[in-house]
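Hi team,

Below is the intake form for Thymocyte nuclear protein 1 from Panthera leo. Please confirm the fields before the structure is written into the shared record.

FORM ID: S-0412
PROTEIN: Thymocyte nuclear protein 1
ORGANISM: Panthera leo
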Amino acid sequence: MPRPRKRLAGSAGSDNKGPAGKRTKTKNPVGASAQVVNSSPQKTSASKTCGKYLSSYWLMKSEAESRLEKGVDVKFSIEDLKAQPKQTACWDGVRNYQARNFLRAMKLEQEAFFYHSNCKEPGIAGLVKIVKEAYPDHTQFEKNNPHYDPSSKEDNPKWSMRSSILF
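The structure came back. Fields below:
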């Protein structure tokens, strides 16, 4: 049985009625395919009284178990990150516009939760730090790469990537 969809922030009270007064379907802009989720600073009732913001973290989604995409395994778990030189890796292959925009918004030294998805026990597996701000994702130009995008141009790339380190 499908789970009921939650309303997006800011949509409370909106009835999504079209021109004829009929309800229209709306798409979830984050969707299940989003790989990056923004965690903006938010105030709680307790923090309002003391005037402090809570800590802010990004959420970086990664597939911890094997999944083939155009014949290539796109698995990348926290164990794979630990095995990288200096426990640092780039976050490439993001092909969701909202997730790409979040990648571009990340700043040096910000922290993110490393989230395992598409596995038996999804959840936060560790904490990473942003060590390089967004730059063009080279995989969008590689024809043999599963993340190749023929509509992206080298003089105006559509997709970005960034690097993080485990800590």
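SUMMARY LINE: The longest strand covers residues 123-136.

Thanks, M.
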